[in-house]
């Protein structure tokens, strides 16, 4: 699936053509919550900072943030500096919060990270780590679509114009030799932009024939009788592609590097805990989903969704660059200058201390 590498770093930043590139999630618009674990009495603040504000989506693709919050693993690393959490249901609103200083660090999808970085001419954020790979599937009505060729002429939902899954689906369509106007979604396939919260109802009503969506929406569709026709992971080298990154406001990174390092250490240790305790981690993520959105996932949705998502410390930078290429090919993005979007120095410092291997930035790191 990934297009040949292009020298994005050598190009001048140009404006986006598309609407804000959103990510997909669940829950209400940004609502602040204190961390689930209390700051230990007498714990020392890092750099004297009272709190760090962390944003994420109530979505299984943000499992690291969900579990790290629920189990108090971030707070443990932050000592007397309180972890405060905000939830978002779309990438643009989280980027706005970062720009406005309402949050300092966030878990977010690749498309809004690219958009936020580009629109600010590289001045507002850095990607400082990876969080999750996979968890995106094409689920269809098996009565209407029995093979990939049958997708032609059908109505397939994606979460939002220009979002990560929308770009991926448009790229897949182009690789089949089919034509679709990216903006309108009309052509050999009808691309229907539908909020993830209502996609299952749209499927049940027959207004769509399938959807290219992240978890847990994909598993919700399967629970309604849908069939997984394609797992996007199968289209990528090593079956890995970025679905969630960790970003930070550049000024916060500069002013509070030890706090950033503590959050990254919490992320790395949370991912290790998830790997070691998959069932406990799944339960913790679901408990936090219920706390954040008011609704836990039923087992028939939670179990398959959880299995398809892989936590990762590696931001899989080459796949982010490929995703940007796909957006350019679809006509949704002007060729961006992504040089400097990554600063993996703090993460690699943490990984070394934890006995891990360093991760790369595909040549797009800060100089």
UniProtKB/TrEMBL annotation:
Pfam families to which the protein is assigned, alphabetical: NMT1_2
GO cellular component annotations of the record: periplasmic space; plasma membrane
Record InterPro entries: ABC_SsuA_sub-bd (IPR010067), NrtA/CpmA_ABC-bd_dom (IPR044527)
Signal peptide residues on this chain, from the entry's feature table: 1-25
Gene Ontology molecular-function annotations: ATPase-coupled transmembrane transporter activity
Keywords assigned by UniProt, alphabetized: Cell inner membrane, Cell membrane, Membrane, Signal, Transport
UniProt subcellular location: Cell inner membrane; Periplasm
Family: Belongs to the bacterial solute-binding protein SsuA/TauA family.
PANTHER family: ALIPHATIC SULFONATES-BINDING PROTEIN-RELATED (PTHR30024), TAURINE-BINDING PERIPLASMIC PROTEIN (PTHR30024:SF47)
Protein's UniProt name: Aliphatic sulfonate ABC transporter substrate-binding protein
Source organism of this protein record: Streptomyces alboniger
């Amino acid at each position: 699936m990934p297009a040949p590498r292009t020298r994005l770093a050598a190009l001048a930043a140009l404006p986006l053509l598309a609407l804000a590139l959103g990510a997909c999630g669940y829950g209400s618009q940004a609502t602040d919550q204190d961390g689930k674990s209390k700051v230990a009495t007498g714990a020392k603040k890092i750099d004297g900072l009272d709190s760090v504000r962390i944003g994420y989506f109530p979505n299984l693709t943000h499992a690291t943030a969900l579990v790290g919050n629920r189990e108090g693993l971030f707070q443990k690393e932050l000592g007397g500096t309180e972890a405060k959490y905000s939830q978002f249901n779309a990438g643009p609103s989280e980027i706005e919060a970062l720009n406005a200083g309402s949050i300092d660090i966030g878990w977010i999808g690749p498309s809004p990270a690219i958009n936020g970085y580009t629109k600010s001419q590289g001045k507002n954020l850095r990607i400082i780590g990876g969080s999750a790979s996979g968890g995106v599937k094409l689920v269809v009505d098996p009565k209407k679509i029995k093979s990939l060729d049958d997708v032609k002429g059908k109505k397939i939902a994606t979460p939002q114009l220009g979002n990560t899954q929308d770009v991926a689906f448009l790229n897949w369509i182009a690789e089949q030799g089919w034509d679709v106007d990216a903006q309108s979604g009309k052509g050999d396939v009808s691309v229907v932009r539908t909020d993830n919260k209502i996609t299952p109802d749209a499927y049940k009503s027959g207004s769509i024939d399938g959807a290219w969506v992240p978890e847990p929406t994909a598993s919700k569709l399967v629970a309604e009788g849908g069939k997984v026709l394609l797992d996007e992971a199968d289209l990528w080298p090593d079956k890995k592609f970025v679905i969630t990154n960790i970003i930070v406001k550049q000024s916060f990174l500069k002013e509070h590097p030890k706090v950033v390092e503590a959050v990254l250490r919490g992320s790395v240790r949370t991912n290790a805990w998830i790997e070691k305790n998959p069932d406990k981690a799944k339960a913790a993520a679901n408990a936090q989903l219920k706390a954040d959105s008011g609704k836990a996932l039923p087992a028939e949705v939670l179990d398959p969704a959880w299995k398809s998502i892989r936590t990762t410390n590696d931001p899989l930078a080459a796949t982010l660059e490929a995703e940007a290429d796909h957006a350019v090919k679809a006509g949704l993005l002007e060729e961006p200058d992504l040089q400097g979007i990554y600063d993996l120095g703090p993460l690699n410092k943490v990984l070394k201390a934890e006995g891990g291997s360093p991760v790369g930035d595909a040549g797009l790191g800060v100089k």
